[in-house]
Amino acid sequence: MSFEPRSWRGFRAERIVLESDEPYEFRTLGETHYLALHDMRLDDGELHIDGLSPVRRTDLRDTLTYAPRGCTVAGWAKPRRGRNSFTAFYFEPEEAADELHERYTRSNPRPFAYARNANLAATMTKIKDIVSLPDIDSLYAEALCLTAAIEILGVQQPSAPGQLTKAQVDRVSEYVDAHLHEPITLDELAGVAGLSRSHFSRAFKATTGQGPYRFVTNRRIDRARALLALRHGPGIAAIGQAVGFANAGVFRRAFLQSVGMTPQQYRKERC
Predict the structure, then answer these.
(1) Residue 8 and residue 172: Cα distance in Å, rounded?
(2) In terms of Cα–Cα distance, which of 79, 24, 76 is closest to 54?
(3) Whole-number Å distance between alpha carbons of 209 and 203
(4) Tens digits of residue pLDDT in 169-216
(5) Cα separation of 184 and 41, whole Å?
(6) In the chain, where does DSSP find H-type helix?
């Protein structure tokens, strides 16, 4: 079983769930950087990555495999009976370099197999979750993908990240407020500020204390609260759509998480 692959500019992710314990072979040709998060146990198997000795392991849960572009990954595996899955993340080196070269120094990481890294695994787990969901906020997805690229490339953040000017923050805020009813991407916000996605994301958080995704979500919730407080305002489903949530369920979950009550409960208290 494979979830529908998801793509954003320069990034692609997919999740594969293995529902059989039959042996299988695999091979990637190294056309992009490749990073995989494994949640698997094997009866047997062997992994070959250019530049590394063959690796044989059976408990692959919470492990990571990385191969840079041009590095072939191949091997075979016999899954242990049970639910096994892995999440694969691909990104273009040029895309990452364009995003990062002005403010960050990139190392040339070597490939690794079945390694453990808590921070990178946590980011990849979030990517796994968004691939598995039908509704994905593209702004959140882009931010996660950039985080994974930064972590895997070994990029070091400057000790004092730059901040946005007041004019930049004002322009971004005005753009968000004018487009709350639409999907908002990291590309768009960075363009409004005149920065790359990576620089904008970090500078915005350093300036406002919250990431772009959280900022946009909070503005959506604030607008929804104002509409819910109107005695003869639009219906709850219409409000969720008007402030940019994909459907009523997503709106309800986001509102409950932010406000501590459902939109229905909030309207009842205010009206």
Answers:
(1) 21
(2) 76
(3) 10
(4) 999 999 999 999 999 999 999 999 988 888 898 899 999 999 999 999
(5) 39
(6) 93-100, 118-132, 138-152, 166-178, 186-193, 197-208, 212-228, 236-242, 248-259, 263-270
pLDDT band at 158 (very low <50, low <70, confident <90, very high): very low
Q: How far apart (Å, rounded) are the C-alpha atoms in residues 179 and 140?
A: 16
List the one residue out of 22, 63, 20, 23 whose CA is nearest residue 40.
Answer: 63
Residue 182's identity, in one-letter code, is: E
47: three-class secondary structure by DSSP = strand
Residues 6 or more apart whose CB falls under 8 angstroms from that of 236 comprise: 228, 248, 251, 263, 264, 267
**Domains by residue range for the chain, with CATH:** 6-152 (2.60.120.280), 219-270 (1.10.10.60)
